[in-house]
């Protein structure tokens, strides 16, 4: 696992030894960021299920003003902190909360995100629950984008006043980009 572009390009990042770990591979990571380019100036990003932090570190490498990382698992959170320390990134906020508590905390602090990356464990319904909370708590900035990674072709656009602006499959991984659908906000 390495940083694929930006000021931290080429840094090798640690990954967990667990067999059930499924970090986003470099090809998919590079494609995600290519599809996001050009980035907003001085943007704020959230990696809600951060794992080892590789997506958030890519955001930092590409000019994020600040990146919020949330990883609940203690051993993975330790690797996340080691990876952040390795690239010497100072503009980060790391939390170790259940994703629901993290969303409530960000809302209480009035934080709006330009980019939110969601890659929860594939088993379970955390992707839908996290999108619902993000929309309900209005964490997405104007023109903000939610990026999802899943192993199923899920569509949350009609349910949560979002629209899909890009989508692509990489083997069993399906990447989707959502933004607010202004025409649905009056519902």
Keywords:
single chain, 187 residues, alpha/beta, Rossmann fold, seven-stranded mixed β-sheet, 5 helices
Task: Please outline the major beta sheet.
Answer: 7 strands, mixed
Number of strands: 7
Q: Provide the β-strand percentage band.
A: 25-35%
Side by side, the strands of the main sheet go: 3-2-1-4-5-7-6
Sheet/helix structural class: alpha/beta
Mean pLDDT: 90
CATH architecture assignment of the domain at 97-184: 3-Layer(aba) Sandwich
Oligomer: single chain
Provide the gyration radius in Å. Answer: 15 Å
What is the CATH class name of the domain at 97-184? Answer: Alpha Beta
CATH topology-level name of the domain at 97-184: Rossmann fold
Give, in order, the helices and strands: HEHEHEHEHEEE
């Amino acid at each position: 696992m390495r940083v694929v572009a930006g000021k931290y390009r080429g840094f090798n990042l640690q990954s967990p030894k667990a067999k059930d770990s499924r970090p986003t591979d470099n090809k998919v990571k590079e494609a995600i960021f290519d599809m996001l380019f050009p980035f907003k100036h001085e943007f704020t990003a959230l990696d809600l299920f951060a794992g080892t932090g590789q997506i958030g570190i890519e955001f930092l490498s590409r000019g994020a003003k600040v990146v919020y990382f949330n990883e609940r698992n203690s051993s993975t959170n330790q690797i996340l902190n080691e990876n952040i320390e390795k690239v010497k990134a100072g503009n980060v906020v790391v939390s170790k909360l259940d994703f629901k508590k993290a969303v409530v905390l960000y809302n209480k602090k009035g934080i709006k995100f330009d980019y939110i990356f969601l890659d929860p464990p594939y088993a379970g319904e955390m992707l839908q629950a996290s999108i619902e909370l993000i929309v309900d708590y209005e964490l997405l900035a104007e023109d903000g984008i939610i990026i999802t990674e899943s192993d199923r072709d899920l569509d949350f656009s009609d349910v949560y006043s979002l629209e899909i602006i890009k989508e692509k499959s990489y083997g069993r991984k399906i990447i989707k980009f959502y933004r607010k659908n202004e025409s649905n906000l009056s519902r």
